[in-house]
Write a structure and sequence with these properties.
By secondary structure, this protein is mainly beta. 6% of the residues lie in helices and 49% in strands.
Amino acid sequence: MAREDFTIQQGTTFSKIFTILDANNDPVDVSGHTAAAQFSKNYTSSNSTAFTTATNANGEITLSLTANQTADAVASRYVYDIELTDPGGNVARISEGKLTISPEVTK
């Protein structure tokens, strides 16, 4: 599992790609897998925002948020994680970390 922290600009369209590599640093085909990712204020929070996710044969998981979703998020620090479910139903956490929403001035 990887750990990565990143920032999202409030009020903008967001997209970020995470690449899954095997022990030889080759991309893992995750096109038949399902990805899920959310962020929330803390690990025990009952409120969270889900990313739109996509997977492909190049080992990529893309997380996306619309400009409206990022505008609705309060500028603050959050936690996130990404889970990947294979066709057999096995779930693995791919990444986790801190996410910062930086405030928007122009509205």
